[in-house]
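Lay summary. Proteins are chains of building blocks that fold into shapes, and those shapes determine what they do. In this project we predict the shape from the chain. Here is one chain we studied, written as its sequence of building blocks.
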Amino acid sequence: MFLRTVEIFRSLQGESTRAGQPCLFVRLAGCDLGCTYCDTPQAHDPRAGADLTVDQILDEACRLNDGPPPLVEITGGEPLLQRPGLVQLAARFLDLGSTVMLETSGAYSVAGLDPRLEIIMDVKSPGSGAADRLCPENLPLLDANDELKLVLTNRDDYDWSLRFLAAHDFSSLRAIHFSPAWSTLTPATLAGWLLADRPPARLAVQLHKLLNIP
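And here is the predicted shape, written in a compact code that computers can read:
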């Protein structure tokens, strides 16, 4: 079983309730959403990177971390485009005792995934150009182990996100994050809207970008 892999690296977790924790990242290749604000265009092409076996990825992860990494994020691209290999890789990390986060757009089904996974579902707002790609059947599958993230480009995205939260019951989730798109909306502006409206969401900034680290 091969996974087309763009990069494996250590950094700080930048977004989620685990922000600030050291984390081992596995970035898989391939994404077909074409978000306007994408900050990982190098992972779009499903041919990017190299074919690695699950064992090769695990070996490199353990080498970089001097042993099994306590916290792993599998990201992309869209990791669920390589679902069979992803499932195997996640299971191997979980069996080593790692906490494993899966960042996914929600465009592909999360049904049947290992319940030990922490799903970070990056639901696309209209400003992304990919809001229509959400698989709505995914939403009731999220639980207290999971988090929702919405990246916002402007006030219209923010208002859309408030309506989106009002239309669904996300009370069981661990957290809901509103994140400003890096180039189009300032964190301070979004913070002001959150303070005024007090939705059941928190401000999330990309910590790794603020620190200028990978």
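What the prediction tells us: The first strand starts at residue 2 and ends at 12.
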